[in-house]
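Continuing the series of single-chain predictions for the mutant panel. This is the parent chain; the variants come on the following pages.
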Amino acid sequence: MNLETLAIQVTRFHDANASAVTTPIYLSTTYERDSEGNLPKGFLYARGNNPNRDLLEKSIAVLEGGAVGFAFGSGMAAIAALFQALKPGDHVITTPFAYYAAQRLLVDVFEPWGLEFTLVDTSSIEEVEKAIRPNTKLFWLETPSNPLLHLTDVAALARLAHSVGAMCAVDNTWATPVLQNPIALGADVVMHSTTKYFGGHSDVLGGALVLAQEGELSLKLRQIQNLTGGIPSPFDCWLITRGIQTMPLRVKRSRRVPYL
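Parent structure:
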């Protein structure tokens, strides 16, 4: 499918109750068990999962070419969850051109917790190689960066990360899957502030992580998402899913408009 068609198709919700052509908003916080105590639809409690969030997570994962997606209440909540999946003593390589709040998160929250990090110009492979330590577990990249549009070679750094046993994660908020697919370039994790192009109307806050593969990291992230509760509301999920349907058109059009 063309991306424009895919954005429409992946967000379709097949309503078995009323055959609604637009997705219902499920506000229920808890779900009914059957006579034997089972959960026939797989939903138990809204912090753990919800039909609207389930649709959003699957849609973003498909658009990014990933195996599994996780929706959060903000982009920062998504970044924090990924850092929380590491251990005290682990080392992160990132860039001073990354989103300012992500850097503050490392300095103010995770460095006191025991996470180590190095800021390096990720456009230079040589500088990144110099920053690698035996305990390096994650390359945190942002390309194009916000707000300076600093560029990084995702494919080259993904190969370098894997050669030393580290993961490569990319903040793809600025480019969106319309213009860049980090997983296709070798990245293990993609992050989005869905507040931006996914939502598209400046009326909803959200974030997401997409993983190239399911495994130990996806299990850990699902646990963090559930236990910390930094999730989007059903209505927020509905708004972002709606925004996905027009995202390819909006992104392509915005790139044709010259800045004044």
